[in-house]
MULE transposase domain-containing protein
Amino acid sequence: GFVDIKDAEVAGFSNFRVLHRIFWAFGQCIQAFNHCRPVLCIKGTPLCGKYQEVLLTAVALDANGYSIPVACAVVEGETKESWMWFLRNLEQAVRHPSDVCIIHDYKRELIDAIEDFLSSDQRQWRKVESRWCMEHLAEDFFAYFGDKKLVMMFKKLCQQRRLNKFVKIWKELDELTTKYTAEREGGTSGEMQQELVQHDEAGLVAQSPWNRPDSVDSEEE
């Protein structure tokens, strides 16, 4: 396994130290990641109760779509410095034979840390890509359009692996969202709603592991 602890001295007590940050990755999880997709989903979650820190996690998906907690850390907050510290430790602890992709939300502190991490010439991973989390984009998509069927089409578009189907869904979604926006600005949406009902909702529901109960962002569904 891999552990990194960062503590600090307390003024006036030379032999007394306080935990500042801790990072850990179990050996079994590190080995398991070598057999997973080369994708790590990183996220920060505030702790509750008397512990006011933040839990940072890096989660992978195996071939069956089940989530594997590759690494965790407890830090003082989601700052650029703490995220960079987490990414540096993650790079040292975890190896994968393929290039690694990091999926994340778009909090400013995290984006800044990832940009610095990707531009660093001291990186140990051979090649790293970063992508925004589909679930967070879908939340903003729903907040703007307010229609679940459009959101399901958007998720299906994000998960499509075949170019011809991707282009087909993209074109259809673009037409519907353009019409929806125009009708909403014009104060009418009945025709748009009727057209959406014609779509088979069951066929639009995403079937990827992201929508399973044990998925990385299942709590946001």
Observations:
- Residues 136-211 form one domain.
- The beta strands are 2-10, 13-25, 39-46, 54-61, 67-75, 100-104, 128-132.
